[in-house]
């Protein structure tokens, strides 16, 4: 493990002559920290008093406090290289000047939005000093929130890049103009692409921490948020799992005492996130005056050293000030008094830092002013340069939704099945595929609730995986769906291939934030720089007497999510081939497995060969026909085939059945070709008829094959109601063989 001296690997902010700090020297800036984590009242600086209307930026507390689990030797100006301190002050000034310049550009009509870092610079600069930015494994990882401008600059982002993002230029390195400003995503620095959703970064950050542990590295992950985000459940889920697994994670809470306009005392029990973080065994806590650079540096060095030495996660609460409104869309004078705002300005972290350096003889007042002028000139020049750069072109607006290359797979077909091979049911096909893929690729991990050990999941789809591949590759998660999917983001973005299980589709909704706002747009919002290939396995569907919360179908919702591929196989062979392909894809895949098909005879097929793969977006014609096309998927495939056989035997008609296999991508070509042949279309699906995925199929047929139709397009689907438990009630609201036959006969009668 690295010592604190080893942590001083220099980001661009750092001077080359930097040396390690002598922790034995006393600090004139930060009060001493007692063994119990408290400081003597006599040590408190005057600035550390309550102010304003009671919503104080810096409460009446020691400059550094902890729960006693971490020793915090204080740092002074004499402990750090003068060149480094000067550079850090300059970077903090750069951040502040960018805030000012971006607000000016907005007033000039050249920008559209800004959310400022002003008041948060000291704690960010301090933490960057002990961080190791770079690309890929072997470096630290960073999960930002929108106020981390100074952190980004300290790690290596340039003012030009910041302004390209502000003006939404084509060369914006964060997103290519796809995201709002301050949504950082710098791949070369391991800064994960940032989502707007408050708290969405917590669980991906823990996933990065797990990936560090898997590789046995001494790196750490920086997970940043404001005080308002600690009200999100994701915060507590992340603390719990990180503490349980001793993940190398730093949770930085930048507490400026406001969540937009809601003050901390109306938001947070106990008045501080420091108290919220108590009670997680294995999680160390610290609190620091985040406007004091040297107190912040002392806390940063101690916290990161603690993490690198394998001692588990740290929650560091930094009390800061917010010197600008929440964003350019906000007016904080409507909810903050002039006295409070003035009190905050008196403890401006840049002014405090500059004064301390002046007192230490490191910078004179004239040198500070000259530095400020130089920074102004640099930012003005960068803004003018950025203004002249190219805007994104309209033809690129739909780029990077999905992976656009070739996976290099030699796909199989039903013709590759040996009819004499041993029959296999669907759940066994899934299990075998997971085993084969995990043996092929050591980066594949399988986890979720109940999946590990002898049980192997509630449906046994993951049985024997832990025994064969070890508990570090197949393991149980907490019962927290958002955490399961969220941590998979961090795993995937750092080079692993997670296959996670959500036990029932009905319980996927806590993960909706991660799936819709994090997973699906990950590639798009980073302009193709970041990817998170993963598979989310989800048992779904009714016909098992599961009632309201064990019977749901979710494909219509997730099919409407750009960036997420969706598969729903109907046979064992298709399950094996599609799952193998899904695991090897560069896109996230929602892999829906109908529970009623797991062991159904109708889904049984000959055992496919090893390395059996099937293409996404290629439907299977399950039955040839000339008189009517039934388009369907999942559990409805065997029902459609049953109906087709009955219609052939009883009415002498030949019904073609098209099994979609995947709905994103959708094989429209096969659908249209079949309808053009039969001139009649019946769309069958289990989900609600109203706003179900079948409506999209109908629309595409109406758009592109209307002239071929000899009858209206019809649907057979579930009623617009939850799925009831009683057999008679369940049967009444779900499609039946008889329903399909009746609708088919109606169409054939035209």
Helix content: 25-40%
Helical/strand content category: alpha/beta
Integer count of domains: 3
Tell me the major beta sheet. Answer: 7 strands, mixed
How many beta-strand segments?
22
CATH topology of the largest domain, by name, is Rossmann fold
CATH structural class of the largest domain? Alpha Beta
Mean pLDDT: 92
CATH homologous superfamily classification of the largest domain: Thiamin diphosphate (ThDP)-binding fold, Pyr/PP domains
| Overall spatial form | elongated
What is the alpha-carbon Rg in Å? 29 Å
Total helical segments: 23
- Measured by DSSP, the beta-strand proportion falls in 5-15%
In the CATH hierarchy, what is the architecture of the largest domain at level 2? 3-Layer(aba) Sandwich
**How would you write the strand order of the largest sheet?**
11-10-12-13-15-14-20
Which oligomeric state applies? Answer: single chain
Intertermini distance? 77 Å
Q: Which runs of at least 5 residues are low in confidence (pLDDT < 50)? A: 1-11, 14-56
């Amino acid at each position: 493990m690295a010592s604190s001296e080893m942590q001083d690997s220099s980001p661009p902010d750092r001077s080359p002559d930097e040396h390690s700090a002598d922790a034995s020297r006393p600090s004139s800036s930060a009060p001493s920290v007692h063994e119990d984590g408290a400081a003597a009242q006599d040590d408190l600086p005057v600035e550390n008093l309550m102010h304003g209307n009671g919503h104080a930026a810096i409460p009446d507390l020691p400059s550094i406090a902890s729960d006693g689990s971490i020793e915090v030797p204080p740092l002074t100006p004499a402990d750090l290289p003068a060149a480094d301190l000067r550079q850090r002050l300059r970077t903090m000034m750069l951040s502040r000047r960018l805030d000012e310049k971006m607000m000016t550009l907005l007033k000039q009509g050249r920008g559209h939005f800004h959310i400022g870092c002003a008041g948060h610079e000291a704690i960010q600069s301090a933490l960057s000093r002990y961080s190791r930015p770079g690309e890929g494994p072997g470096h630290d990882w960073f999960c930002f929130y929108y106020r981390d401008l100074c952190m980004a600059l300290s790690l290596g982002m340039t003012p030009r890049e910041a302004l390209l993002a502000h003006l939404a230029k084509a060369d914006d390195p964060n997103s290519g103009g796809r995201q709002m400003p301050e949504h950082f995503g710098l791949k070369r620095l391991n800064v994960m692409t940032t989502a707007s959703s408050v708290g969405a970064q917590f669980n991906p950050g823990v996933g990065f921490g797990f990936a560090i542990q898997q590789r046995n590295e001494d790196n750490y992950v920086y997970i940043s948020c404001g005080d308002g985000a600690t009200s999100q459940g994701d915060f507590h889920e992340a603390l719990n799992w990180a503490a349980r697994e001793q993940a190398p994670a730093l949770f930085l809470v930048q507490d400026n005492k406001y969540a937009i306009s809601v003050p901390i005392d109306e938001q947070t029990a106990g008045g501080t996130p420091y108290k919220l973080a108590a009670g997680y065994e294995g999680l160390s806590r610290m609190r620091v005056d985040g406007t004091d650079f040297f107190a912040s540096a002392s806390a940063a060095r101690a916290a990161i050293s603690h993490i690198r030495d394998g001692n588990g996660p740290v929650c560091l609460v930094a009390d800061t000030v917010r010197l600008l409104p929440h964003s350019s869309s906000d007016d904080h004078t409507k909810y903050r008094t002039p006295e409070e705002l003035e009190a905050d300005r008196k403890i401006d972290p840049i002014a405090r830092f500059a004064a301390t350096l002046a007192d230490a003889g490191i910078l004179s007042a004239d040198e500070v002013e000259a530095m400020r002028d130089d920074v102004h000139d640099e930012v003005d020049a960068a803004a003018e340069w950025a203004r002249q750069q190219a805007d994104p072109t309209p033809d690129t607006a739909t780029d990077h939704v999905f992976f656009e290359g070739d996976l290099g797979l030699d796909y199989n077909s039903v013709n590759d099945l040996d009819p004499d091979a041993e029959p296999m049911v669907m759940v066994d096909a899934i299990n075998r595929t997971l085993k084969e893929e995990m043996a092929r690729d050591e980066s594949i991990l399988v986890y979720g609730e109940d999946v590990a050990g002898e049980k192997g999941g509630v449906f046994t789809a993951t049985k024997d995986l832990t025994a064969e591949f070890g508990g570090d590759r197949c393991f149980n998660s907490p019962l927290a769906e958002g955490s399961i999917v969220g941590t998979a983001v961090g795993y995937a973005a750092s080079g692993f291939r997670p296959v996670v299980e959500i036990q029932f589709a009905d319980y996927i909704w806590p993960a909706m934030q991660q799936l819709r706002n994090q997973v699906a747009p990950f590639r798009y919002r980073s302009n193709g720089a970041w990817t998170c290939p993963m598979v989310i396995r989800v048992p779904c569907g009714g016909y098992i007497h599961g009632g309201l919360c064990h019977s749901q179908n979710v494909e219509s919702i997730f099919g409407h999510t750009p960036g997420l591929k969706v598969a729903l196989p109907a046979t064992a062979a298709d399950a094996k081939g599609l799952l193998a392909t899904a695991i090897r894809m560069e896109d996230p895949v929602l892999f829906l497995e109908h529970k009623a098909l797991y062991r159904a005879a109708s889904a049984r097929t000959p055992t496919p060969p090893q390395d059996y793969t099937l293409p996404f977006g290629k439907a299977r014609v399950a039955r040839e026909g000339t008189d009517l096309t039934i388009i369907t998927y999942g559990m409805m495939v065997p029902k459609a085939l049953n109906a087709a056989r009955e219609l052939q035997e009883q009415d002498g008609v030949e019904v073609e059945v098209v099994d979609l296999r995947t709905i994103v991508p959708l094989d429209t070509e096969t659908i249209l070709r079949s309808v053009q042949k039969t001139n009649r279309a019946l769309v069958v699906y289990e989900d609600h008829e109203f706003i179900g995925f079948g409506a999209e199929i109908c629309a595409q047929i109406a758009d592109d094959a209307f002239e071929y139709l000899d009858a209206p397009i019809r649907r057979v689907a579930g009623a617009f109601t939850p799925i009831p438990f009683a057999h008679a009630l369940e049967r009444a609201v779900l499609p039946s063989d008889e329903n399909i036959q009746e609708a088919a006969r109606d169409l054939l009668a035209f």
